[in-house]
Amino acid sequence: MRAQNMHTDATPEAISACLGDDAASLRDEFPEVAENMDRAAALVDRLSGLIDSPELENFLRAVHIEAVHQVERWGAAHDRAKRPADWFWLVGYLAGKALHAAVSGNRDKALHHCVSTAAALYNWHCAIKGVDVRMCPGRSDLAELVDGNFPGEAQP
User: For residue 2, which of 95, 93, 77 has the smallest C-alpha distance?
Assistant: First the structure.
């Protein structure tokens, strides 16, 4: 079963639907809260767009985005439940998809599956180390590399 993204239920429309007739009056009574909610929803949409859009050309950036996407899509508990053999078979399965796409001449799909395979390895690496790919407690080498190639996109 796939994990649902929690952010999909936090839209202003969903909140208004939950609050019913009180939503408009609460927005009028607390405009600064409503403005903050709108900004937060826009940020969630922008960040979701980043992690839900496959990157094909810049390999390291693509792997990091895909790794985060995999955790968001399947959930961190899903990865914690994997044993080493599960990771091995997942990587083999994804690499096989890359092979099949390359042999059939589908360049974009082959690139995507190369990236998804590397992202699965990255998530396995994080699982072995016991860290969450979505968290950045310090300044990582990958963040330095991303920031060098895409100024302002890596988190401090």
Answer: 77
